Amino acid sequence: MSKPIVKVALAIPGSNYFDYLLPDHLGSVLKPGMRVSVPFGNKKRLGMVMALTEESSCPLSRLKAIDRIIDDSVLLRPKDLKLLEWVSAYYQRGIGETVMASLPGRLRDGKQSAPDRTEPVWQLSQSGRTVDDASLARTPAQMRMIKILREQPAGMAQKQLLQLSVTSRATLAALLKKEWIEPAVAATNASRADNEVQLNAEQQTAVDSVNGTQGFAAWLLYGVTGSGKTEVYIRLIRQALARQAQVLLLAPEIGLTPQLYQRLQKALNAKIVLMHSGLSDGDRHCAWQQARDGQADVLIGTRSCIFTPMPRVGLIIVDEEHDLSYKQQDGIRYSARDLALLRGREADCAVLLGSATPALESLHNVACGRFKLLQLKQRAATAQIPRIETLDISNSSLNEGLSPQLLQAMQQVLQRGEQVLLFHNRRGYAPVLSCKSCDWIMHCEHCDARMTWHKHSQRMWCHHCGTQKRQPHQCPECGASGLQYIGQGTQRIEEFLRQRFAQYALVRIDQDSTRRRGALQAVLQEIKQGKYSLLLGTQMLAKGHHFPNVTLVVIPDMDQALFGADFRATERMAQLLIQVAGRAGRAAKAGRVLIQTRHPDHPLLQQLTREGYSAFAEQALAERKLLQLPPYSHQVLLRSEAAKAEQASEFLKQARECFAATDAISLWGPLPAPMEKRAGRYRYQLILQSTERAELHNRVSAWRQQLYRLASGKRLRWSIDVDPMEMY
Ligand code: ADP
Ligand code: ZN
Ligand code: ZN
To answer: Which of 124, 301, 499, 585 is in Cβ range 3.0-4.6 Å of 305 for a Cys bridge?
Structure first.
């Protein structure tokens, strides 16, 4: 019997499925998982067929017919649709919005097959292998390319090669002309394991444990920074590939994907595909298609890759699983880490979460027996865990925030020819412009935030909404001309260090210095080649990178983080500190970490520096338990924002009134967000918390339908955040 009703997901906010009739002539070809064009209002819209059924809750006479089928074969398989349905229900977002957001832009726009991006793979030729560095000295771009290819005996795809070496096609053409490079021969089955490191006992145990378990299992690979987690990933991936499985490897940031690609490409005989938001639409579509069709063996990418269909997926790895960037902060507010577990369960395969500073949630999951723990307590090879020391600066006279002791320690390391990394999580030149006479401070007119002075562009900038202003020369409040820049951003510290350590090359890495595409990759390569002695930067520098020659990490200011408002503030601070510290002494030379503080006795600092992350985590979890905060309870946040504060809070008040109260769920709010006004809009939130997750979610889902009907909600923006990670 035919099923004439088509359930279609359309990206209409708050909507469920829309029913359409299936015209006879399309009857036999249409299947769930195909895109269709349907009439909606007086327009045509793109939708995804979710199911075919016999019944509709609407009278048949009122249903319109499908206009056109876009795909000639199924785009999303039943498993993929099921995942999206789950995401839509769990994260309280319409199915259509969920499905559409999961697709690459080109598919959302109704485009057909991916553009053909078959690319040559290049390797060094016989003569290219013997070129010496001296003869390349005058062509640095060619040198970079050759150096990369030396490390890649099986060659590298053109796009990745250009990206990693930060060169153009002209460089490639030049090398071709000299006959130093040639197209790589098709991948042979030769093992790439020739000069591979021997795993240490802890690594081997980790690999054996995962391999010894069949079907779904969640593993937390808790390994100190530099303990060789990536090496463990590589072995596991190789074995998954041997079973003909596909592997999904998630990284928290685009900036980390090239180095992972490079390591995997060197170690594996496989088709490795990169996918992240830095790619063009066409490239992203192409990567998606290759994963979807099973041609890609390994997919490396950021958060949104978690939605990419992979028919043979047999291993999912989430690197730096504690990282906040796995949680999407707008649209569908999903956690890619949590979805990785769901996908692993669906695909009945292992999921490996790796971190040196696991999220408290994950440690709690270990304690509850949901995750199995694998530990790497030693740094791989000969590297030592760095010592972390605090420097009490309550009585020091500071120079641009840096104490004499700190500068002296830096000097010593620089003199030895080693690298120093200075971490400072504040970009710009000075975070405050104020009046000497009346204490006026320049605020952003659209946000509850101060404006930051950017010396290079000669502008005051708001880092929250992007507003730029010329700096005033007189106080608008009292007319005095004595305005001063207070505090240090990375640019100011850079200026000072360039004078103080003039003979040493310095590089600053933050959002401002790396805006240009490929700029970050270029400096990262330069750092590895030892071009700089002083590395200065924000958390862009703190994550995951491997700088073998850094032996001293200095942190001039972390005190602010000790007193954060959010209950997760201490967890963040602890993770950041251990991660930054982890950049020190990653190779043969021992490392040291110096933190300046005015609160050397602060219990958090004491505990972290003396006992380490595990002790901190244990205590933090005990506190959370006492207060019944996540992970010992579950939260849902209803956020609203409007041009007027009353509007935003009024909606939440009404929302609260129509919530079916129960003792099992606590409600707080409406409360102003920690930054109440941002980009000209007032933001409020209502917090729901319960120890009963199912109960909470069931009630929220019924409640959401009511919220769509509240008149006050139609005039403003609101959203539901399930398992919120940030109050903001
Ligand atoms: P993580 O991912 O935990 O930060 P990596 O896998 O990047 O650590 O390893 C850090 C460094 O140690 C790398 O240079 C890696 O090649 C090296 N390494 C890893 N495992 C071993 C080992 N068993 N023996 C020698 N060197 C190793
Ligand atoms: Zn003034
Ligand atoms: Zn602003």
So the answer is: 301
Question: If you classify domain 634-722 with CATH, what class do you get?
Answer: alpha beta
The CATH architecture that domain 387-430+487-617 belongs to is: 3-Layer(aba) Sandwich (3.40)
Look up residue 429 and give its amino acid.
Answer: Y
* CATH topology match: 5-108 vs 387-430+487-617: no
pLDDT score for 262 = 87
Closest atom of ligand 1 relative to the 225 alpha carbon: 4
Ligand nearest to the CA of 583: 1
Ligand nearest to the CA of 472: 2
SS3 (DSSP) at 315: strand
The pTM score is 0.90
Check if CATH label 3.40.50.300 holds for domain 201-376: yes
Cβ proximity of 314 and 295 under 8 Å: no
Q: Which atom of ligand 1 is nearest to the CA of 544?
A: 4
Read off the amino acid at residue 675. M
What CATH architecture applies to the domain 5-108?
A: 3-Layer(aba) Sandwich (3.40)
Whether residue 546 has its Cβ less than 6 Å from ligand 1: yes
Q: Is 455 in the pocket of ligand 1 (CB under 6 A)?
A: no
Please report, for residues 461, 563, 723, the alpha-carbon distance to residue 458 in angstroms, rounded to integers and kept in the order given. 10, 32, 41
Domain locations along the chain? 5-108, 121-183, 201-376, 387-430+487-617, 634-722
Q: Which atom of ligand 1 is nearest to the CA of 582?
A: 4
Instruction: Name the closest-CA residue to atom 25, ligand 1.
Output: 381
pLDDT tens for residues 152-200? 777 888 877 887 777 888 888 888 888 888 887 655 444 455 567 899 9
Tokens at residue 711, please? Answer: 């008149």
